[in-house]
Fold this protein.
Amino acid sequence: MLVPVGVLRLPRGPEGSSRGFNPNSPRFQALLGELMTVQGVRANLRQRYLQVLGAARGHPTRFYLRAGVQVDAVFSAADVDAVAFQVDGLRTPLGVQAAALLRYTDVLAYTFPLE
Amino acid sequence: MAMRQTPLTCSGHTRPVVDLAFSGVTPYGYFLISACKDGKPMLRQGDTGDWIGTFLGHKGAVWGATLNTDATKAATAAADFTAKVWDAVSGDELITLAHKHIVKSVDFTQDSNYLLTGGQDKLLRIYDLSKPEAEPDVVSGHTSGIKKALWSSDDKQILSADDKTVRLWDRSTMTEVKALNVAMSVSSMEYVPEGQILVITYGKTIAFHSAETLEQIKSFEAPATINSASLHPAKECLVAGGEDFKLYKYDYNTGEELESYKGHFGPIHCVRFSPDGELYASGSEDGTLRLWQTTVGKTYGLWKCVVPEEENAEAAKARTTLPGTAEEEIEDLASENSDSVYSSTPEVKA
């Protein structure tokens, strides 16, 4: 008579409607765990922001300021204390400023093309 | 004591399972990905079949799926004209690669930096995954839809199969090196790096060719149309499955049929050995994956070898039940697991 091989249990199947990939599994914690902490997320965001600043450099940028004011300039740099942007060729109604500082607190948004 | 194979059934898919692939061995074990016509490929722990997660995003049947060696990335090929790359730890979709027709096959290079795709538009595409927006390198030459495309020779060459041919390409020149005409439609292809062996199935034939010259080494005939075959890492045996719902195990050296198993309720579409060769997985039209032991009766994964005499003695001490109960409990587990009563005992040839 053939004795069937015993099994400890059946393979676990999908859990309801969850897509799985349990963030508490040892593999997830080891490989991605750091990314999921608040510190990890903030580090990621900081890195991305620095990449944005680097990418904007030298590109013609449109700044949207308060009271509906828009100005165009060439993005140059941002300072470490987040006080001001330094721009070149700022076009104002009074003419073009070769170099200028725009206060962070005055800028609502700015856009630049990626190419 | 003759043991009977107890396959482990992995449920979860709702439509036929058409492709499956194992990762390499990682510090967390090895993993298995299954491609399904329900459009939801699943990742499982390789040695137990436990479900880990489902990759959600495709809008059509998934025809091909693969994992990179350390199972950190997954790639899938689908009928929605896209191939997708996924983070296999978090399940997140990383990259979508638009194609002009159904994509059938995906394969990572060993460093996971490039992805090879092939499909119904008859073109092979090589994507640089560090620049996914860039146009891929395109290799043309196939005259019918590509069913499988694999890197070979340390990622320096590409093997691809369509309906009637298997072709070998040089990656650096993007040109065809050799072509092999196959008598019938190629149903599957597997590349074994150690020994440079190519396993091809067509009709009832399981053929082994040199991956470098495409010359045939040997071939075996099965009793029924075979859809997929896999060679054991140690090249002692091979397994194959197809249209008669059965799995066959052959001795690679002699071609002798060693074992055969019923269990699936539909044709078997894919079969693969695990990277350590201890088990093989089969995917079927019936929507299930089954894990089978290479050495029946060995303690491995969820399989536990229990010798009834020893169990009886321990059972007598631990419980006040009769010695015969232990064997029945194992029987119950087996039948519960098999989903069905075996219509006939599997043939096991000593």
